[in-house]
Amino acid sequence: MADPSTYRPAPGTIPTEPGVYRFRDENRRVIYVGKANSLRARLSNYFQDVTGLHPRTRQMVFTAASVEWTVVSSEVEALQLEYTWIKRFDPRFNVKYRDDKTYPLLAVSTGETIPRAFFYRGPRRRGVRYFGPYSHAWAVRETLDLLTRVFPVRTCSKGVYNRHEKLGRPCLLGYIDKCSAPCVGRVTPEEHREIVDGFVSFMAGHTDKVVRQLTREMEQAAEDLEFERAARLRDDLGAINKVMEQQAVVLGDATDADLIAVASDELEAAVQIFHVRGGRIRGQRGWVVERTEEPLAALMQDFLIQFYSDAVERALLDAADEAARVKRRGVDQYSTQPPKPGAVVPREILVQHLPDERSEVETLLTELRGSAVDLRVPQRGDKRALMETVERNAQEALRQHKLKRVGDLTARSAALQDIQEVLGLEEAPLRIECTDISHIQGTDVVASLVVFEDGLPRKSDYRRYRVKEAAGDGRSDDVASIAEITRRRFLRHNQDKLAVPDEETEAQTFEDEKVEEFSTDARRFAYPPNLFIVDGGLPQVNAAQKVFDELGIVDVTLIGLAKRLEEIWVPGESDPLILPRSSQGLFLLQQIRDEAHRFAITYHRQQRSKRMRVSELDGVPGLGATRRTELVRHFGSVKKLKAATLEEIAEVKGFGPKLAAAVFDHLHPGTRDSMAP
């Protein structure tokens, strides 16, 4: 690897104008492409103290052997040139959102004499009406299967249609009334066209008329005692309702928009996009990419440029290929028309984070579409609610991606081996425990302890703690809290090493939150850990090590995991260990730390909610914590307690007339005095 100082440009030689730069390796291959409003300011950041760079960036500058740049006239031109070079050179250190799939569509060949409905992938053609895209092929086929009960349109290919036309008998779909069988003259072309028009109208969103007609016919058939026909119409109505549920209107006024959200952690980012066409969600796509040091606004900007530029370019190439194919066949009925930019780049693009260079990105998107594009963050109403749904999907996609990596046996084995090698352990850490602290400005301080065995959570051994010593003065002291929890966990460590697992306990199934708080009773951990993780940096891990020294624990490896760059801190070491960002071991450690954080947050919310429920009863003379809790439990809430009479309060177990009067007067000051004669 080259030293960045060997190819650093001389001071003052880098221009201050906007431009695009390329880093090349020793073989002259482009490994990174970037843009900047000021080339000098941006490139100078790469040649500062390399220890302050993001690990991915640090690896890039050491892999590179030279840097070059091109000055452009505007920031919009810089965006375009950056995209062009990324497509051309495919640099290994650039984040790329690859999406070379063609998404399934429901097509209706309205240009034919006898139109047909069919599943389709590929470029759009003239004379065909398209609905979609759908996220899955089965969704197209299920929609078509449901709707042909009500709209028995032709779905067969040209060859099948011609064969049955010669045979003089319909196919199976014709016999079961899922096709009107125009091939044998059961309906005229004009009548079949009316069925197709109803199908297209329904798919375009005009559903109320069909529902009302089917409901009316079903009720009439029931009145006429035609129960078989009424049952068939009932099933048809059920099929219609199922399709309507799949394509429910989410935005009014037939809005065409894309909604984009990002969920990220320190290592990766998940991007989700919902395509809304005609007010309905027509498709959903997602990507998970490696996270860089750039903020989410920059990640969003890169995604917008790459995704829509790729989409327009791919649509044009598909149209050209289809035109050449049609020309070779000599067929002009389905001649290809250029893709409508609005079908690829909608008028509205709603994002979770606005790009830093919003105006330039809007200009580029406008050029791609051919008309104005509105790029903004939704603030209220249905669009804001739908954006929250997209955000939840992005978070779930990231969570599922991480769980998939941890859940794979091969990946778990590789992860444990990575951890063993980087920490220099004699054997893989089959049992790992991790603790985390949660509080708000020193109040309701709690801690969690989660356990992973063989890379999987062992929820029967989870613990949660109320921290007392470290937060007694109402201030936050994470270091002292870590020391307290470590001491409480390992107080009986030597006895736990001799513990024999209880077979009944081993066979029991534990739900997510059914865990008990650790105390000094006879309940023990099943096994001692091989590795103990504290959430934090060097101060936290040193505090835990002092407890280990105090208790004489030498057979448990201790580390700290810091959130900033996922650094691994070892007691007594001045520098952290850095695992490669693609390491399976780093993903497992992060998963364990995130689970401890989730469990601590859940317990903290429970404690805070419990405290807030009874806070209005603070200061009642003679009312302690036990009776206060009993009072709220009896009435169900403080609000219902306020509505209770003095006599009803006095009926609570343990409450006499004097204490009941004190509670009533505290909640209703001056009320009894005003009622006195």
Automatic annotation (TrEMBL):
Its Gene Ontology cellular component terms are: cytoplasm; excinuclease repair complex
Q: Which organism was this protein described from?
A: Corynebacterium pollutisoli
Its biological purpose is as follows:
The UvrABC repair system catalyzes the recognition and processing of DNA lesions. UvrC both incises the 5' and 3' sides of the lesion. The N-terminal half is responsible for the 3' incision and the C-terminal half is responsible for the 5' incision.
- The protein's gene is named uvrC
Q: Which residues form the GIY-YIG domain?
A: 16-95
Q: Does the record carry DNA damage as a key word?
A: yes
Q: Where in the cell is it found?
A: Cytoplasm
What family is this protein classified in? Belongs to the UvrC family.
Q: What is this protein called?
A: UvrABC system protein C
Gene Ontology MF terms in the entry: DNA binding; excinuclease ABC activity
**Subunit:** Interacts with UvrB in an incision complex.
Q: Which PANTHER family match?
A: UVRABC SYSTEM PROTEIN C (PTHR30562:SF1), UVRC/OXIDOREDUCTASE (PTHR30562)
Return the InterPro entries for the record.
Answer: GIY-YIG_endonuc, GIY-YIG_endonuc_sf, GIY-YIG_UvrC_Cho, Hlx-hairpin-Hlx_DNA-bd_motif, RuvA_2-like, UVR_dom, UVR_dom_sf, UvrABC_protein_C
User: Keywords assigned by UniProt?
Assistant: Cytoplasm, DNA damage, DNA excision, DNA repair, Excision nuclease, SOS response
The residue ranges of the UVR domain are: 208-243
**Gene3D superfamilies reported in the protein's UniProt record:** 5' to 3' exonuclease, C-terminal subdomain, GIY-YIG endonuclease, UVR domain, UvrC, RNAse H endonuclease domain
